[in-house]
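=== RUN LOG ===
request id: a7f3
mode: sequence -> structure
chains: 1
length: 767
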Amino acid sequence: MKLSSNNRIHCLGAAGAGMLPLALMAKQSGFAVTAQDDSMTEKAKRMLEQSGVEIVVGEDWISSGKGTVIRSSAIPVDGGLVQSALAEGWRVCRRGEFFAEMSGNTKLVAIVGSHGKTTTTAMLHEWLGCMNVEHSLMLGGLFEDDQLPGQLGGSDWLIAEVDESDGTIEGFSPEIAVILNVDYDHHTQYPTEKDYRSAFQRLASRTSGKVVASVEVCEMLDLKNTIEQERLVVVGAGGDVSFDFKESFKGGGRLDIKFAGSTASVTINRSSDFNVSNAVFAAIAATEIGGREHLPQSVFFPALERRQSCNFLSPTLSVFNDYAHHPEEITRQIASLKKQRNGELWVVFQPHRFSRTRHLVHELAKSLAAANRLYLLDVYAASEQEVEGGRGVDLHVICQEQCSDCRFLDSEDALLDLLENEVDPSQELSVLFLGAGMTHLYAKKFASRVAVRDARWGAFSKVLGEGARESSQLKSNEPLAKKTTMRVGGSAERYLEPASEVELSVALAAAKKFGISVQMLGRGSNLIVPDTGVRGLVIRLNHPFWKQYRMLDDERVWIGAGMRIKELCGVAAKLGLAGFEFLEGIPGNLGGALRMNAGAMGGWTFDVVESVRFIGMDGKVYERKRAQLTYGYRHCRELEDTVAIGAVLRANASGRDREEIRASIGTYQEKRHESQPREPSAGCIFKNPEGDSAGRIIDELGLKGTAIGGAKISEIHGNFIVNTGGATSEDVIELVKLARRVAQEKKHIELEPEALLYGAEWKEFLR
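=== RESULT ===
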């Protein structure tokens, strides 16, 4: 059937993972779309309504016109609404059938396989976004932020996961096919493993362009004998593309993708074997579309709902949920979480479909045995009739043979009551809810229960979990001295290093909502931490996510707020960008330099700023051009009570010789080394009085070399207090008070501290 934008479409089961993006894309394509779902979620409802899709209930829509009813596979064809629509002359088709028709005039990149499709499709979407390649997206899942899973782009390229579960895979003829794996599944649709593999073989034969598959999949599907060699991209040892991965930070690292004749090195925020492999497959597809030379130097993939989603994050307890329901997925998810988190791992599992449970009962038991403790629920039927040998109790019998601590619960309440009683708040523990059924909802309810145990931090930990990932770290009583350049001070009540903009936004909004004070910590170069520590939450943008850079054109570069100024100068030299050399030697990171409009050698940070992106303490994100900001000596008003997360910087020249730029940086280094002390310090301790120099005043007062405890006024520069070893913040504060008192008594000058007293106010100590 030739589709027309005049066609009316009614989506049954519109909140489903596959139906929602279809409804959104159909609306964006110009179709008149109505949507219906007895289990409509708030998020799906919001996305549909904001996109202009009308949400309806009941049966009145059937008699108000004719068109096409698209039904989710979970809705049977003999159901009342479907039969009533057929009787009125509506055309009825399955979701996959309609999508195959929609994709007929596109350059479809089909992501297929037993598992990993949603993750890989989202990764490909991010690769192409970083490469500025226009495309449309059909994702069978939800991003954790408000990004739409169905997006109509500005080119013929359409990237989508294609589902084999209901047989509708047969309607697709893609431009590029990415076959991730072929682990036997969906036993009612495919009676034998040969039948299952044949569906993927036929898709490969219908693909007009490249077919991307691993060495193992190529052997399983005999692709080397059925696909022309020039159309086959084999991934793995001995194939056309191989890869190495080295974890360099928690949850991520450097991925080296080795093509014939070249290697692309990219920093990614995934570390499990499965996700690294998915990232490689997505990258290969991206290079087929946008060119190998345009791969970015770093890519930080967005989080997806029900893909190791976090529901609760405290220093000791974390609660996660994941869609994994096939043995291979379960094995990988458990291994990944055990690698990322400390302490024991307890797993709650709900089997999906009686047929799958019966066929894979031994494989499921083996994969679940890796948990320290296992809680089993009855099968989520997904409209199937009960099958002998495929019930939850049948799986429990087999699991007991392999798992030393395994319990079967016959209800949600029984599960939650037992978990609540058995979790020790002081024990380091992760609880992982697995399955394609209702376990994600049980995880949320369990998180709500444990949250009420801690009156101060419980609600915060629950909300924070909604933006966190498995690699996120929240610590209690974290020492701060070594995180500052002065090397003094106490601990933070809570300490967080967020791994994404979403997580930072959620943390700030939650802290504001629950009355928890927040202190941002950069490189710790212009502050003094009190010996008593900091009450509330300390946030540091230390994760590699905040240190990214991206060239926008020949003269402009995006720099993350967590990048050290010293590293920024190195990046500029590497890129041949001139004009940043004066910043060399400023000890902080870009975020702090923006907030303070840090200056050196006659230049100021905002001299090279084009725009700034920042987050308010309520979690809202803003972006402002330099002309919209109020900045001056040692301040930027808009950043006083917000958090800078990055900026677009503009060079005054590009294409410059790298060695020439490095030589200029070296000149600034020498000047700083000659004029500033080498010992630990907080930088300039006092602001310069108007028309004068604080360092000169202190020198004239004869205070250089004055020491209290382990702190001393530098003999090289009077406006520096240095830590000679073993200093306390009290020692530093006493020296500040001494210098102020002498300056007032002898010169009638009031020296104002420039270094911050972290988490406190100077007026509390300078009375």
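=== NOTES ===
Residues 729-747 form the longest helix (19 residues).
The chain is about 30% helix and 25% strand.
=== END ===
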